[in-house]
């Protein structure tokens, strides 16, 4: 039988949400192990030099890292590769790359795009993550000016769109690519759907998610994805 598989994660990490969606969809018995975001390298040293979440440990003790390869691993070993059924065609590869290189970058502007928004986000993260007493307060109050001033503001300025408009444009682009089907994968979701879903779902613990809720097609697809979870 071996040991129970584990997923070392941050509760608010977009890349972890991608993997969590697949785990829930396949109804896998996986133990979630939250880690301290201020001590990632130390707490994940067992997995070698990767030093990032998510880290999945199989029942035989093998460590699998990096969210998209990890999604493929779970699909291959527990689902006969059904979610990866379309990855051999150019359309699916293009849109999977789009999710991982374009949609992924939209999470920072929506969560940290203004000083007030950044404070709400770091305060919420400090309550959701497995921080220690000191690091919880340090992240909440020292993290938001860094995330806003050094990272988010540059992304918003370089893109030129308000964070809400950016997300609405991306959701329109993605749902238009469904070609009239319920999911990108057709009648059933595929790995591209779960990659995009993970990034969007990572915004859901925060008040900024309400900025996405009036995108009709995007929310209709999101709700269908939620319904697909076991």
Question: Can you tell me about this structure?
Answer:
The protein has ten helices and four strands; from the N terminus they run E-H-E-H-E-E-H-H-H-H-H-H-H-H. With 230 residues, the protein is of the alpha+beta class. The chain has two domains: 6-78, Glutaredoxin (3-Layer(aba) Sandwich), CATH 3.40.30; 90-227, Glutathione S-transferase Yfyf (Class Pi), Chain A, domain 2. The chain has a four-stranded mixed beta sheet with strand order 2-1-3-4, with helices on one face. A hairpin with a 5-residue loop joins strand 3 and strand 4 (63-65). Helix 4 runs parallel beside helix 9 (191-201).
Keywords:
230 residues, alpha+beta, Glutathione S-transferase Yfyf (Class Pi), Chain A, domain 2, 2 domains, globular
What's the rounded overall pLDDT mean? 93
Q: Could you give the distance between the termini?
A: 23 Å
Tell me the structural class.
alpha+beta
| Rg calculated over all Cα atoms | 18 Å
Tell me which oligomeric state these chains represent.
single chain
Tell me the number of structural domains: 2
Low-confidence stretches: none
The main pleated sheet reads as: 4 strands, mixed
Compact overview of the structure:
The chain is α+β, with helices and mostly antiparallel strands and 230 residues long.
Q: How are the elements arranged and paired?
A:
Elements: E1 6-9, H1 14-26, E2 31-34, H2 40-43, E3 55-57, E4 63-65, H3 67-78, H4 90-101, H5 107-112, H6 115-128, H7 133-159, H8 163-176, H9 191-201, H10 216-227
Parallel strand pairs: 1-2
Antiparallel strand pairs: 1-3, 3-4
Helix pairs in contact: 1-3, 1-9, 4-9, 6-7
